[in-house]
Specification:
By secondary structure, the protein is α/β, with parallel strands linked by helices. The chain folds into 2 domains: 12-245, Alpha-Beta Barrel (TIM Barrel); 255-320. The chain contains 15 helices and 9 strands. The protein has helices at 22-30, 43-47, 53-56, 75-87, 102-105, 117-131, 154-165, 187-196, 210-220, 229-233, 237-245, 255-272, 277-288, 296-304, 308-320; strands at 12-13, 35-37, 41-42, 66-71, 92-97, 136-143, 169-176, 201-203, 224-227. It has an 8-stranded parallel barrel, surrounded by 6 helices. Strand 7, helix 8 and strand 8 form a beta-alpha-beta unit. The longest helix is centred in the last third of the chain and has 18 residues, at 255-272. It binds flavin mononucleotide. Flavin mononucleotide (FMN) is lined by residues 14-19, 39-40, 69, 96, 98-99, 139, 173, 204-207, 228-230.
Length: 324
């Protein structure tokens, strides 16, 4: 089993529902992502053989090390799901205790587990039993909502108890679940947890550039960082991170780099997920063009394109700088 690097030189790709599929993970790995997480996979869906689950679990040999993120609120299903994953050869797991989407929270899963810490620990114990000591991480928010004045956010006590149970690492996105993505990530909470936790801590939250990632590593003393929206906008963020860590900065992507990125993404998507490839490209690529001047027209064309030849034309227009 490939070891799991958790250190400042090894940037992670976050679990991203609808985004961190096999083609996107490989694209990020080619650009320096050290560890990638799958999209969240429902434990119940896995146990009952749900329709989408197999697609979410698609992988191949060079997609390693891979962390499979599972969600659920019933310890028995979570344990069974992780056992099934282990039997299939998956070796690293993450439990979603941070997702704030109502559809997930309604079932008591994701960040809703932060409202029921005893249940969260029961789930964790079951997952660790199935995964093995040190093989599961837990992705937390600060808590469900702000605590009463004078009280600490629940994540600190929870992380300590997860460490006692045999967790391998903790990831913290330091916002309350009730905040969704509003406000800013509370970096002081990362620093506080990093200082007290006897486990590696991975930082998530508002890491939009490699500079943000390096700053959090230095200022908060966390073990590693995980890029989410930053990677969605620029999968080259991993190469930028590694370059900065080595003491030099890479230039922002120019037209040629953008065109090459989109071509490569399309190639991987067509090969590995042909059924959804074009639709995904229509969703993913507009994000890559945010930094490009005068790309509004291209973005409009992109989200309507129905043929691969149209995408090729758009890529050529990006590379040449000619109006599309
Ligand atoms: C489109 C999208 C999908 C996400 N899906 C998941 C998920 O499946 N599991 C999870 O734990 N977090 C998920 N997250 C949260 C991210 O992993 C990350 O913690 C969060 O975006 C904060 O990092 P950022 O501010 O650098 O983007 C998702 C975020 C976005 C934007």
């Amino acid at each position: 089993m490939t070891e799991l690097p958790i250190n400042p030189e090894s940037p992670w790709l976050a679990p991203l529902a609808g985004w961190s599929d096999l083609p996107f993970r490989l694209l990020c790995r080619e650009r320096g992502a050290a560890v990638c997480c799958t999209e969240m996979v429902s434990a119940k869906g896995l146990v009952y053989g749900g329709r989408n689950t197999e697609e979410l679990l698609a992988t191949r040999q060079d997609d390693a090390p891979l962390v499979v993120q599972v969600f659920g609120s019933e310890a028995s299903f979570m344990e069974q799901a992780v056992r099934m994953l282990r039997e299939r050869g998956f070796g690293w797991f993450d439990v979603n205790m941070g997702c704030s989407v109502p559809k997930v929270n309604k079932t008591g899963s994701g960040s809703a587990l932060l409202r029921t810490p005893e249940l969260a620990l029961e789930v964790a114990e079951a997952v660790i039993r199935a995964a093995g000591h040190g093989r599961a991480g837990f992705k937390l928010r600060l808590g469900w909502d702000r605590p009463a004045p004078g009280q600490r956010p629940i994540c600190h006590e929870l992380a300590r108890r997860l460490a006692d149970l045999g967790a391998g690492w903790i990831t913290l996105h330091p916002r309350y679940a009730r905040q969704g993505f509003s406000g800013v990530a509370d970096r002081s909470a990362l620093a506080e947890m990093a200082e007290n936790l006897p486990l590696p801590l991975i930082a998530s939250g508002d890491l939009f550039s490699a500079e943000d990632g390096i700053r959090v590593l230095r200022e908060c003393g966390v073990s590693a960082v995980m890029y989410a929206r930053g990677a969605m906008a620029d999968p080259g963020i991993f190469a930028r991170h590694r370059a900065l860590q080595a003491g030099h900065a890479l230039p922002s992507p120019d037209r040629e780099e953008l065109a090459a990125l989109i071509r490569r993404h399309a190639e991987l998507a067509r090969e590995l997920a042909p059924r959804t490839a074009l639709l995904k490209m229509r969703t993913f690529v507009p994000r890559y063009l945010k930094s490009l001047d005068g790309a509004r027209n291209l973005r409009r064309r992109l989200i309507q394109c129905t043929e691969w030849t149209e995408l090729d034309d758009i890529i050529n227009a990006i590379a040449s700088g000619e109006p599309a």
